[in-house]
Design brief:
The protein is α+β, with helices and mostly antiparallel strands. About 60% of the residues lie in helices and about 15% in strands. Helix 4 (about 55-65) packs antiparallel against helix 5 (about 70-80).
Length: about 180
């Protein structure tokens, strides 16, 4: 929990500095690249999480791995290294991306379904979310066969669970209480 709060604090501070210097978009692009790279590379993820590898080595890897990064992104690497928090790099990048989107009037909604949504259904979901939030919506689709059917919609910290699995669990609770 404290890791999430720390990541959010670093991300908000970075966003504030980037907005002040009017380079928020450039830093956002860096954070997208960094987050994607860490997520895609198990070796990079393990390197950053390792308590055995020295912070200076981790910092060197980040600087050489992302040489075209903006000066503020490099300063973030250095700050995280000096505070012994480089393990939070992926979380800080995600938190920055989220904070940047919010500052731009965008939100990310995650829809979990048992099977892939059709383009028509996706358009209907986007339209409904846009009507509810008055913001530009980025829809992220997750396929999870364990929900059997229906969907789970997550917008920020709110969740609407209309999955068959949830309905069966509710029915089971009602029947076991009687």
């Amino acid at each position: 929990m404290s890791g999430n709060r720390a990541s959010l604090r670093y991300a908000k501070a970075l966003l504030g500095a980037a907005q002040e210097q009017q380079v928020a978009q450039e830093v956002f692009d860096d954070m997208v690249l960094i987050s994607g790279s860490i997520q895609a590379s198990e070796a990079l993820k393990n390197l950053l999480a390792s308590a055995v590898i020295k912070g200076a080595t981790k910092l060197s890897v980040l600087k050489s791995g992302f040489p075209a990064s903006h000066e503020l992104s490099i300063k973030l690497f250095e700050l995280l290294e000096s505070n012994k928090r480089l393990a939070l790099m992926a979380d800080v990048a995600k938190a920055y991306m989220s904070a940047f989107d919010i500052s731009q009037g965008k939100i990310t909604a995650q829809v979990t379904t048992a099977v892939a949504m059709s383009a028509e259904l996706e358009a209907q979901v986007l339209a409904k979310i846009k009507a509810l939030t008055d913001k530009t919506v980025n829809l992220e689709q997750v396929i999870d066969p364990s929900i059997v059917g229906g969907f789970v919609l997550r917008i920020g910290d709110q969740q609407y669970d209309a999955s068959i699995t949830n309905q069966l669990n509710q029915l089971e609770r009602v029947l076991t209480l009687q």
